[in-house]
Amino acid sequence: MLTCREVTRLVSRSMQAKLSWPQRLRMRIHLLYCVWCRRYATQIQFLRKATGELANETDDSPKAKLSPEAKHQIRARLQEALKEPPSSSH
Amino acid sequence: MDSDQLQAEEKSKVAAKGPKSGVLTNPDRWLEEHGDELFGFALSRVRDRSAAEDLVQETFLAALRSVGGFAGRSSERTWLFGILRNKLADYYRLKSREPVFADDFLAPEESSFFHASGPRKGAWIKSLAPQPWTAPDESLVQKEFHDVFHQCVARLPTKVAQVFLSRELDNLSSEQICKDLNISPNNFWVMSHRARLALRRCLELHWFGKKKIRDEKD
User: Fold this and answer.
1) Looking at residue B23, what is its pLDDT?
2) Among partner residues B68, B123, B150, which is closest to A89 by beta-carbon distance?
3) What CA–CA distance (Å, rounded) separates B116 from B110?
4) Which residues of chain B are under the pLDDT cut of 70?
5) What is the pLDDT of residue B4?
């Protein structure tokens, strides 16, 4: 019989790799009688969804943009680099 | 435009044209068109403005030097993002040599959630066990939820966050992540799992648990 600790590891793992048939079976049996681990499994599926949304967040917030100072600095550094003699391309 | 500026512009066009590319590149244009997106991405990974700015700068510098390598196969943005990812990998390789200290909030190790011994060995510790969450999908459309989620990710130890995000957001293979971050496959599993346990718990504490109280008040 698997412990909750073992089952949560399997659940995590199943999100990224295929479990062996015996592992999957034992995991499912545990999930049948353990409400906590059942919740865990559902909730980390939700977590995956929520993480996917991180990528879609509107980056209109000023936090996600380069500050004007940073832009200025980068621009200056790039201009400097352009003046350097071209290195042999590889 | 004065003649100095004109000259500089011409110079920039000439200097930036690689032998193979046939594409005139202009770093100022790169900065305007792609700077913020590159920065946003870097920031979501390193969570340090100054480091993210440096990474963007390094990306453009590297791009300048390898303009001959941009064959126009993929879009310019994809190409720049590719360079940024390499820079991020370098950043983390360097960081991995520093001792990993806990951030202000120590995301609990896996072992803290389960009984270590006794008759309940391996079972969830009741006070830390998953509680029911009401209508979680509804939270996805709320800005406040995303703020809380962001905070939770920010509390993960840097490397743990990086492993988790590279997998969930970038869809990189575990082999690639192990290579980029210089970790073993076992580390990868442990860290991914730890991230999940910690994020779940963090959301429960700071959102779903409180949501229940909020809902009951209405």
Assistant:
1) 43
2) B68
3) 11
4) 1-25, 47, 67-74, 92-107, 212-218
5) 56
* Mutation for B interface: A79, A80, A89, most B CBs within 10 A: A89
Topology adopted by domain B110-217: Arc Repressor Mutant, subunit A (1.10.10)
- As given in the structure block, the two tokens for residue B150 are 């962001």
Q: Calculate the CA B151 to chain-centre distance.
A: 13
Q: Which CATH class is domain B16-95?
A: mainly alpha
At residue B21, the pLDDT reads 42
Best of B57, B147, B175 to mutate (most A CBs within 10 Å, chain A): B57
Which ranges of chain A have pLDDT less than 50?
58-60, 88-90
User: Can you list the alpha helix ranges (DSSP code H) found in chain A?
Assistant: 4-14, 21-33, 35-56, 68-83
Q: What was the pLDDT predicted at B168?
A: 84
Q: What are the boundaries of each domain within chain A?
A: 4-83
Q: How is chain B split into domains, by residue range?
A: 16-95, 110-217
Q: Helix H segments across B96-184? A: 136-139, 143-154, 158-168, 174-181
Closest-CA residue in chain A for B14? Answer: A82
All residues of chain B having their beta carbon less than 8 Å from the beta carbon of residue A74 are 31, 35, 53, 56-57, 60
